[in-house]
């Protein structure tokens, strides 16, 4: 997904989400039974919905109980709430290498309307808790002096940042193993 977005916006692409056996790979290549792979399933939805990429769901069902249904509903609600910005341009912050935190940033400028100028998805795919200082480029958001950063849509977490001369902010990130977070930029 990351590499394809150098040529197109994320919503112009699509991926497979193999819920059951598809083209081999064995049980390690699919999510069924879903209720036994909730963490991985949620992580996959975070990647796809967080990137604004549509998926082709290969399987008989997208949930198999109330917990997996809640995961599906959470990400559908996320997409509905932030569709405007998820369908905008994507800025590459740090390419996924399975060794460290990776991230990308969706941007919309003021002229496009909308309250949010950025939405960054940040992932820790490793088996260790990682702490990092992540430099987030905000030039294409149209912001030029200050940015309000809101963690996972919770306005009580809002922090104001001064943009550097090159239109960037640096945020401290601590992520547990195999986890993600996201921030809104206003």
Element-level helix/strand string: EHEHEEEEEEEE
Number of helices: 2
Low-confidence stretches: none
At the fourth level of CATH, the homologous superfamily of the largest domain is Golgi alpha-mannosidase II
Tell me the distance between the termini: 25 Å
Architecture per CATH nomenclature, i.e. the level-2 architecture of the largest domain: Sandwich
CATH topology descriptor of the largest domain = Immunoglobulin-like
Write the layout of secondary structure elements.
Blueprint: E1 14-18, H1 38-51, E2 54-58, H2 66-86, E3 89-94, E4 102-107, E5 118-124, E6 130-137, E7 146-151, E8 159-162, E9 168-175, E10 179-185
Helix pairs in contact: 1-2
